[in-house]
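Form 7-S
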Amino acid sequence: MSSLRLATAINVRAFQNLTNALSMSQGQWTGSIEGEALADEIGRFRVWAGNLGALQKGHSSLDYRLRDSPVLSNNALKLLHELEHNLNESHAVVSGVRA
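Output:
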């Protein structure tokens, strides 16, 4: 089973990849995705991860806190995987891999 910490870290990386692709798109996507709005979402995600300990190891981690609740853990993982998918799709469009 995938850990929440790993899924969260993957999403942080996906946010960074999308930000980089937007900055390299030479303004082509500024009408669709504002850099400031994306930065706000990244900030919100980091606050969420920090408040819950999603990137922590050990007893302070979200994985540890949800170890006895597979339903909550699985739901959080599903949401993180869905976010990852959406970020990757956005990156593919912005980078020109997908139209």
